[in-house]
Amino acid sequence: MKNISILGATGSIGSSTLKLISMYKNRFNIIALTANSDYKKLAFYAKTFNSKYAVICDITKYNHLKKELSGSKTICLAGINAINDISKKKTDILISAIVGIAGLKPTYNAIGNTKVLAIANKESIVSAGSILLKRAKLKQTKIIPIDSEHNAIFQVLENQDKGNVKDIIITASGGPFWNKDISTFKKISIKDALNHPSWRMGKKITIDSATMINKVLETIEASILFNIKLDKVKILIHPLSTIHGIVNYIDGTSHLVANRPDMKIAISYSLFWPDRVCTKINNIDLVKCNNLNFHKPDKKKFPALTIKEEFINSSFMKSNNIVLNAANEIAVKCFLDKKIDFLDIVKNIKKTIKLFNHIEIKSIEDVIKVNEEARNLTNNIINKKKLWNI
Fold this sequence. Notes:
Layout: E1 2-7, H1 12-23, E2 28-35, H2 39-48, E3 53-56, H3 62-68, E4 75-78, H4 80-86, E5 91-96, H5 104-110, E6 114-119, H6 122-139, E7 142-145, H7 148-157, E8 165-172, H8 190-193, H9 203-211, H10 213-225, E9 233-237, E10 243-249, E11 254-258, H11 263-272, H12 305-312, H13 317-336, H14 344-355, H15 364-383
Parallel strand pairs: 1-2, 1-5, 2-3, 3-4, 5-6, 6-7, 8-9
Antiparallel strand pairs: 8-10, 10-11
């Protein structure tokens, strides 16, 4: 039986993970479940899976959580410090599924305290990937990505000579707007942007998909995770979301991973690696797959994609990554709060990157410092409505 903790248990990744665990309850012992503010869902999961700890980040929800779990053996904790502490508990597997840069410190803490770090928190890899990977190698923690694209590439590249790789392709559904006329973009509403055609995800990542900034983050993540130059990580629009990742080799061979757009498949690989188990999800029916279409992304429609090109030859790659992620988190929140329009998301990100005074990144403390400064800068730009043309 494996001991497991899930950071971000009430989100889409955490919930899908627990659905899988419910199919194989005799193989897992839940050490800790954490959530940001959804105490009812957290309490339900804690009772259902007999979690030793239930940790709520929002301290104002602590008494509610404790009331929900009264009579159970689950220990209730609250606050960001409690989440940081719980991530240091010894486990066989830790699922890092906290959304955004908030997941960085717990993810860092888990390395060396868990045998397998299954990471869905792409923001941590983008912002501090080299630091995390170096620590994981030193502490002998195996990092397995949960993102469907990176999980696919991980499966293909494992035990392969990366020197034989020509390039890799990250596929993108294109979100809700890839086939819409650019003239309609000025009128995009929050409801429109949250209407993803393939995946059911949290609000932040759904907006990232709509702007396609998620693919910029994912190419950076792939470059770091697989030690492949950023210019060798390509993006293709694939609306069916059946092919998740492709590795092209120097001999003309291409290896790819194909499955239905269900995150439980990638999660199951992370949970049971190096084995595979039945997920009760059907394989794709190739006879019925008549729409395996691929398209080059339109950079005029999705100016976020030009950020990747600008980063390729940058001398501030590490700090650029942090600033990009921080600015995006603030801009997306402001869009969801109706402070800015959809098209202003990327404008604000680009302006923040341009104005930021970059520093050399040597430690987690440097990452946290740059993240805070970049977030403040983006907020200032938005509040002053300085959306210059770039």
